[in-house]
Design a protein that fits this description.
This protein has 557 residues and is of the alpha/beta class. Among the domains are: 1-136 and 455-522, 3-Layer(aba) Sandwich (Rossmann fold); 188-337, no CATH class; 525-557, no CATH class. Helix content is 54%, strand content 19%. It contains 16 helices and 15 strands. The chain has a 6-stranded antiparallel β-sheet with strand order 2-1-4-5-6-7. It has a 6-stranded mixed β-sheet with strand order 8-12-13-3-14-15. Strand 12, helix 13 and strand 13 form a beta-alpha-beta unit. Helix 5 (159-206) packs antiparallel against helix 11 (324-387) and helix 6 (212-224) runs antiparallel to helix 10. The longest helix has 64 residues, at 324-387. The chain is elongated, with a radius of gyration of 48 Å.
């Protein structure tokens, strides 16, 4: 079955890197193979790809006499979400990603993704979606425990359950964080409660009324000037009404005189009406002054009380602001919320207990599925290893309990391998032989070809220690993998190379006294000649050519 591949290496440019002065390679879908004499620079190309996957760079990688080495690649990849998480813009390129790494002799590194400067750590985070390099020195995706458990989940058909466990765990963490914050908030409120109670009682004891301070100020102004106000009112009343020659009596006399005169001229009647109105108004004013004087209290005790009340209100205003009643309302709300916080915390703890129980049940079910599937996986990988010239190899998945649980569940796998009879299984990362490691990875990939077909698999040193039928089996498996992934392999064996869809020869030459590496895509007779060289060395015979042709026919079957 063919798959749509989206994460393929399309183009590689290497400049001033180790033996390579300048090299450009265009890669195709399927199985790509690099061949050439020992020391020609095949593994240097793999090392260059390793830099694009985030491997450590060193000043020795820069070609002697040059100011910097550059490794640049174009991938056909749609990783907009991943770029977004790294704070990078996907740009206008719909399904293309350009990665460039520059190395200087002074150990300075520069990394660019889609021409945007970034870091090596960002490159390492992005690389597993693009490249999976299997060799002796590279960091492998399959050596990462998180990736191992993802692949086991895919093999066990428990991806959905693993997602549920992760989701519950995240919810548990959020609930725990919320409870912790509530507890901290409750502690802060309890710490403040004595102060709040004091403020509430102090304001309630004073019992202020809306706008009272201003009202007391006005009252105090009157009480402080009572004698002056009484004198002014009395004098005004007397002048307007009480005295024999008061204003009101004088106007009344004028009014009487004009009424007598109006008998002779009616035009005076309008003026008489105006005078009468003025007399009545002044009389009302006089009565008001009399009544006002009766309402002015000159009691010194009331003055003292008003002064005390104003002083108390102003003191509270200085402490709590201009609106005492609003502050009192806020204090009461905060005191009430102490009880609400405690209630909410109790509710959350009940919910958290239920979530933890749900997590424990789902994680236990997930653990059972993983461990049951791992037995089948162990047998499947061992069968693959036997066909890859590792007949005594033992493959073991050791499970470690994780307590407390985490997002990935309550257990952690460790992939162990015993390449030879009598050896104890060891973690994959402790395998010394690059060839063995590559074959183990090939076996795992063959069985666990369950992740997204969006990457390039690179195999280096996979032919170490094998030949004949085992080499053909390796070639066949690489071809099968290339139906799902783009595969790039470095090999010395014609039995493996014959299965490739595309072959490139790497040559090392001396130019102007310096070694340089060149690459050429092989087609037709060129490829046959290269396969003959790989199989027979310098003894190129007609029989060898015919054998290679038969081998190529067999691999196409």
């Amino acid at each position: 079955m063919a798959y749509k591949r989206r994460g393929m290496l399309r183009f590689l440019r290497v400049r001033n890197f180790a033996l390579i002065d300048q090299l450009e390679l265009h890669f195709e879908d399927g199985f790509n193979l690099l061949s050439g004499e020992t020391g020609a620079g095949k593994s240097v190309i793999v090392d260059a790809l390793g830099l694009l996957a985030g491997s450590k760079a060193s000043a020795e990688m820069v070609r002697t006499g040059e100011s910097r080495a550059i490794v640049e690649a174009v991938f056909e990849a749609d990783l907009k979400a991943e770029l977004g998480r790294l704070g990078l813009d996907a740009g206008d390129l719909e399904a293309e990603m350009i990665i460039r790494r520059e190395i200087s002799p002074d150990d300075r590194n520069r990394v660019f993704i889609n021409n945007q400067p970034t870091t090596v750590s960002s490159l390492r985070e992005l690389a597993p979606s693009l490249l999976d390099i299997h060799g002796q020195h590279e960091q492998q995706t399959l050596l990462d425990h998180a990736r191992q458990i993802d692949l086991i989940d895919a093999y066990a058909d428990s991806v959905g359950l693993a997602g549920k466990v992760r989701e519950i765990f995240t919810t548990v963490e959020a609930a725990e964080a919320e409870i912790a914050e509530l507890i901290a908030e409750h502690a802060r409120k309890i710490e403040r409660s004595d102060l709040l109670i004091f403020q509430r009682d102090e304001i309630q004891k004073t019992n202020p009324k809306p706008g009272e301070a201003e009202e007391v100020r006005r009252k105090l102004e009157v009480l402080s000037n009572a004698e002056k106000l009484l004198g002014a009112a009395a004098r005004g009343y007397e002048a307007l009404y009480e005295a024999e020659t008061s204003v009101v009596s004088t106007i009344a006399q004028v009014e009487r005189v004009l009424r007598e005169a109006a008998q002779h001229d009616s035009r005076l009647e309008r003026l008489i009406e105006q005078i009468e109105t003025a007399r009545i108004s002044l009389q009302d004013v006089a009565y008001a002054l009399r009544d006002y004087a009766g309402n002015v209290d000159a009691d010194p005790q009331q003055l003292e009380q008003a002064q005390g009340r104003l002083a108390e209100l102003e003191r509270l205003h200085r402490k709590y602001g201009p609106d005492l009643l609003e502050h009192l309302h806020k204090v009461r709300r905060e005191l009430d919320s102490i009880g609400l916080t405690e209630t909410k915390k109790d509710e959350l703890q009940i919910r958290l207990a239920a979530l933890k129980k749900e997590y424990a049940e789902a994680a236990a079910l997930l653990s059972g599925k993983r461990r049951a599937a791992s037995k089948s996986l162990e047998s499947a990988v061992e069968r693959e290893l036997k066909s890859l010239a590792m007949p005594q190899a033992r493959f073991v998945i050791a499970w470690q309990d994780v307590s407390p649980g985490r997002a990935s569940g309550i257990d952690r796998p460790e992939l162990l391998i015993s390449p030879n009879s009598g050896e104890e299984p060891r973690p994959l990362e402790r395998i010394v032989s690059g060839g063995e490691l590559s074959r183990v990875m090939l076996a795992l990939r063959s069985v666990l070809a369950v992740d997204r077909p969006q990457k390039t698999l690179v195999f280096d040193e996979i032919d170490a220690g094998i030949g004949g039928k085992a080499a053909e089996t390796v070639g066949q498996k690489l071809k099968e993998l290339s139906m799902r992934y783009q595969v790039l392999c470095v090999t010395h064996l014609a039995q493996i190379a014959a299965f490739a869809a595309h072959q490139y020869r790497i040559d090392k030459n001396v130019l102007d006294g310096r070694s340089v590496t060149r690459v050429a895509a092989l087609h037709g007779d060129e490829r046959i000649e290269e396969l003959v060289r790989m199989m027979s060395g310098s003894r190129v015979t007609h029989a060898a050519r015919e054998h290679v042709k038969e081998l190529l026919k067999a691999t196409k079957a």
